[in-house]
Amino acid sequence: MAKEKPELLTWEISIAVFLICAGVQTGASQSQSAYFLPEFALSPQGSFLEDTTGEQFLTFRYDDQTSRITRSDEDKDLGWDAWGSWSDCSRTCGGAASYSLRRCLNGRNCEGRNIRYKTCSNMECPVEIGDFRAQQCSAHNDVKYQGHTYEWLPVYNDPAAPCALKCKARGTNQVVELAPKVLDGTRCKTDSLDMCISGICQAVGCDRQLGSNAKEDNCGVCAGDGSTCRLVRGQSKTHVSPEKPEETVIAVPYGSRNVRITAKGPDHLIIDSKTLQGQTGEHSFNSPGSFLIENTTVEFQKDPDRQSFRIQGPLGADFNIKVRYVASRDTVVHFIFYHPISHQWRETDFFPCTVTCGGGYQLNSAECMDVRLNRVVSDQYCHYYPENKKPKPKLKECSMDPCPASDGFKEIMPYDHFQPLPRWEHNPWTACSVSCGGGIQTRSIVCVEETMHGEILQVEEWKCMYTPKPTLMQTCNLFDCPKWIAMEWSQCTVTCGRGLRYRVVLCIDHHGQHIGGCNPQLKPHIKEECVVPIACYKPKEKLPVEAKLPWFKQAQELEEPRAASEEPTYIPKAWSPCSVTCGPGRQTRQVTCRVLLSFSQTEAELPDDECEDSKPPTERGCNLGPCDGDPAVYQPSIPLYDDEELCDWEYEGFTSCSASCAGGKQEAVVVCLNKQERKAVGDALCDGSSRPPEMIRICNPEPCPARWEVTSWSQCSASCGVGIKTRNVYCTRVLSLQPEDSATVAEQECQETKPAMLQACNQFDCPPTWIAEDWQECSHSCAGGTQSRKVHCKQLLSDGSFLKLPDDFCHDPRPLSHTHCAKTDCPPEVAGGDWSKCSVSCGVGTQRREAVCRRLTATGQQVTLSRSVCSDLPSPPLIRTCRMNACPNHKKEMKPKQSQNHNPQILSLNRVYIQTRQEKRIHFTIGGRAYLLPKTSVVIKCPVRRFQKMLIRWEKDGQDLSNSKRIGVTTSGSLKIHSLEASDIGMYRCVAGSATETFNLKLIGNDNRLIEPPNNRKLKMEMDLNEANRLEEKWNRMSKMWQSWSEKNEFYLDDSQAHDQALLHVLGNYLTNSAEPSGFQERPDKHLEAAILHGAYSMDSQQFEELVRNISQLVENREVTDDMASQLIYQLMAEASSPQSTTEKWKGSLQENTSNSKLVDKTPNTSEHVYNKQMYKKPSIIRHKLNPLMAFQKSNNVSIGRAAFLTNATRTVILLCEATGVPEPKLTWTKNGMQLQFSKRVAWDSTGRLQISSPAAEDAGLYGCTVTNDLGSDTETSLLLFAEAPSIRGSWKNVSDLVSRRVTAVVGGSVTVSSGANVTLECPVTGVPQPTISWHKNKGLMKGNNFLLLNGSLLLQNISIENYGMYSCIAANPFGKAVASSFLQLSALRTSVDQSTPSRGNGRKRVLMASQIGTNIAVKSGDLLRIGCPVLPNHRNAVRWYLRNQTLPEVRGLEYRVLVGGRVLEVSTLSGRFDGQYRCQTTTNSQILSAWINVMFEAYRWELSDWTACSSTCGHKGTQSRRLVCIGASGQEVTRSACDLLPRRASPTQPCNIQDCPPRWVSSKWSKCSASCGKGIRQRQTSCQQVTANGIARILPVNACVKAEQPSGREDCVSDTCAEWRELPWGKCSGRCLAPSLSVQQRQVVCQNHNGSSIPESHCDERKRPVSVRNCSSEMCDVQWGAGAWRACTAACGSGFQSRRVECVHRRNNKTVADRYCSWQKQPMTWQHCNATSCSRGECKDTTHYCAVVKRLQLCLIDLYKQRCCESCQEV
Fold this sequence. Notes:
The protein is mainly beta.
């Protein structure tokens, strides 16, 4: 049915067109205007009228009660009937609409709509259905338009009428609106989901719902938050060349979106695609367009020097973006795309229940899923994405059925065997770190599980993650410590001369209460001398009089109680009450000398002479006021007062300022003063209602000194190991505290030490995990191969190092260590076919073969190709020699064929063996040759047929071989030679009757040359010259033949050359790229082996193995003579035994190395020198291409050649200089070009490791590593610098220059210039690494005429009013950010006439035209004022301007310029007076034209308005502030934006509604229910309280509050959790070992209801919880560490080390067990230093165990070996 829907729709449209065709046709014939079809909307099958609501919706008339739904109460109130059922969807796919109708029961007066819509059929349509709008256009193809029929094509994305059916006639440009509305469900735009409904475009979100504003995020997730992908952006500079024509720039993975790739340069972009099924493809693009690659649309654009890809995505395959070489210029590729997070967490199924019955629990976990491959991978893949948050485990109950009865007579309830839930357990909080001022306290938290026996076991933390983990740390004692507070000084006690003054000093706690606890030694003094600068005329008063002023009285009364200290101190007790109740009296107190005993924290009383301070007074006077009835003493100078007026309130100074800067507050001190005595008395004696109000004044208004402000720490960069967290540190200055206003200033203004910006975090060991090394090279470059890598189980420790662990420590699945690779076809190659038969039947002949072009496919199959494919490839040899049986005329005796079957036969094996390392014994078969090392034992077998083995005899060099101590013949006929010596060199022959075979044996010396047999030395000396000459001639002849043969595919040899041909083919592959052998002609006196040695060439290991196989095969086939095989022995041995260690150095000369060797030749040393250079290698430093290192860790390793930026967290820097070379190069270090010196902090070793401990500023510099040996040197450097956060050296100087056209200023101050000037804002910055500089204007990006210079400065060209504003320079590097700003102000330049034409832009739109009748405008400061004179553009007469009837030059302070030939006047409104009547005057057609405009200045200002409403109605917290308004020139309030550029005034605040609140009821929290099971009661306390004006909550009598409003204090409650603890039996004693034979066992303890169901543990009493963990005796824990014997020291002297084996063993059976059983005790050391004796030159000892080999190989002539084997080399 789905496929029939589009056809049905087309049919219905055609019928509709046919029914209206007649009427439309008539109209068409009479008019050429377009005709329209009726609306193809969703139409019910009834009659409709236009709705009176004006919403253009339809009203449904007939009643279909069966389709109605229940009316809501709102519908009934509004007069609507219930909504009808939903109609059929307007389409079957592609997104459509359905409607529902309702009718108005009140006629036509219902409020609201009578139709509603919803989306439907949101699945995508098949491709063959086509576009919905195109279907509607095609329905008109058979209807004539203006007398013709057309094929109509849809017109999309019409912004004016997106829901009209507009179509275009094919082949014409005619666009016609065929219908005012498209069918419901038609998309409004092609790139949007919005759809047309009833001719109106309705919004549709990505969730396909009408009215939804849901949008897809960058990851393609509807209404997502962008957490499933991450942004990847960057650029790459390619390095392609003719030798390397292609390079991969970036790999864009499957599923990526919004891909933008742009290449700037000549090279060509290509795409390599690879699907998830492994299908690959290469795609190149020659012309712009849209391409489909792996179901992904790729838009390619190409310009002459620019190419770009735009891919909306998601990608259907992995795309590798490559660059193909075109020209030599560099190509830079920019890329940006959203990379999908391919690994996400997925919750697992629940694990099996912990019990089988009686109630247990189940937990689940989360596993990491590869979304692309839909498989589980290691968790580390999900941890790689910080966006991935691992779900917490979930918990549920299980196995709730009761357990069966054990005895058959009782039913065991479920709670008898309930498995309790794991829970968090924590220890008590530790004591607070400080007693006040803010400290911390910690506690330990573990996840435990209780067994059935009440034993508590510690389990993995994830089992408790279903509940939040309690906090491990909390703050404590946050209140401030008590401190001394000193009041203001009183007035001096005298009116002249020297006197005393007093003040009150109180110990105030954080509550503002006067208490003890302050340090008595820090208490400020309360009395000091004062001098009144008035001369005294009473000579008798020599000493100051201490008048008992109110301040002194208060100081005495509030004297601070003292506490005993570790020093003897007088401790006074409180004063006793006054001895009388009125009038003068006395007070006494006890004063004792006491000391604090620190060890017991108790006080002890001492004699008074132990205290050094003066003893405080023990008695003082007191006066509580006059007694009733006492006669008043008349004093004329003091007036009398009534009792009511005797005391009154007065101000007595101010308190100390609340802040030392930025505007603090002082409160006036109000005291109750006795008017007669002018003394302060108790507040109770004054009338409280007449107490004066609080008086506050501002003090210390100057700005505070600069101080450091820090932000909160960022998240740690690593979850374990060692991470870094950062924060921003700013130097700020507080300008005002009301409200607090601060500004960032230069860091130099902050005097204190700058807080740290970096801090290490999460410094604890990571769990063991798998660490995979990089993949090694593929075993094959094509046709399928394998590659491997090493995978280790390692643990990242808290010091940043890795600890290698056994594999069983890592529980995650082990990553693959082998994989397939190179699954591509091999390039074509030319191979030889099968060889033809030999051209002769006997003797030496030739064989031919055909060249075949073939290719090895990715599956390993050989495919033959056309020969034209391989036309440019080299061809292998197509001809070779072949040997047949000897011809009858040869001299060699041949036995008749009929007798061969009866003669003896030796089964020989012609092989060449070269010994490269020492071996005990080697077995050979007769027929080959061997080059062996001395001291090797050999067995040469002689297998025979048709001959008795006991009769086999052996010859050596033609002489019978007899048995000796070292030489013997076994019963099987094999020859044994023990410990080869020089005398054993020779030709051995096995004789079996008439059959013989030979074996050639030679020995290799310690210099890789053959050892000469003792009896042939003299003969060899005589033959040297002749043999060398013969070899030279032969070598030259072979070299010339090879040069000529290498240019041909076929060649022929005569019989005398045939035996050399095969060897030349083998050598050809190795000699082609080597040096020319012509140098051999310069040394005609070389021996056979030495001469060939000069022509030999070095090979790698693969070439060496291949050459050995080929030569062995040639010898076996008798295609190479023994002489030719001998010629290669030196080269093979030199390659096989080349130096392997880079730690040994060859210091001796080449002549010394060979002076005592047993050589075949005795040629001059020049030849030997050339030979040894073939073995040596020029030194080279291994370089790594790495970015500069940001050293955030404590220890940092830096490869030489890499720069490093150190931080204050750096503790150690290690420079690594790895080098290769033979002999081993010598290494030296330099710093800034000077030789580096050893110190306590700077040291290095011979391996190229330079260590700098505790690096300081003086360690920064350029470090150089130089390696040298006899063949050359190599140098590389690294720059070490200390990182610095960016700092801008801004200038706070204001610059004003209205004359210059070029102005330069340093950022920091304001800049005022004239219009049209060029301004350069410099931003000098410092920082390491060099900070990057960016500029912003008004906190946003800049646009227009600005340019960023290379030095970071900002150039503003031809500035105008648009450039007015704040410019900020931002300098940033990885260690911080700095900001400095300048405000640019503009002032027009005074000039007469400027003939320049204004630029095209917005300025023209702002010209205000003057008129002949006058124009009035209002302008505010900063507006652009341009006045135009109403003349034609071609007006050429002079235009004169006047202001206030004065010419413009006569007006003082006016800044202006004349534009466009005088027709436009531009006036600056930033300075001076610019208001008044402007008039322009000119002549046109001999008549004077005058026009004017009246400019009024609109002055704005900030003013304080009325007070805001109070923030509280009562209490002490109410405040209100003055409202800030913008006032215009008329004095009326205007919009606040008019004053935006003006500085704002501070808005004062004041307290308000400071009054007692009315009484009200206050309730406490409900108590717990009195019954833990069933019905009970709960209670709470209610009280009548009142908050007073000073903020104190007073409890009032109950009758003060309304009794009827009192809340209930008691109510009934029901608890349905009747819970109790149930424990399960104890488990096995199988926990971790705690001590010898001591382990732990556990049981589960659960909280169950009376019905056996599981309930949270909070319902059970924690105090009654049974024990769940206990100790037990375990045989498995009867273990101990067993240490083996120490191995031999690695060095005989100097610094060495030795190791031993340490295992965990059982005490009884002494068997080795896992180390975890012994973890309760410390593991013994496994290695230690040894032989710490000096290796001075006076001691001659061997320092290595290889000295026996050194002596045997005669290496003692080399200095290095001579030093290490001093004792052994002395015997040589």
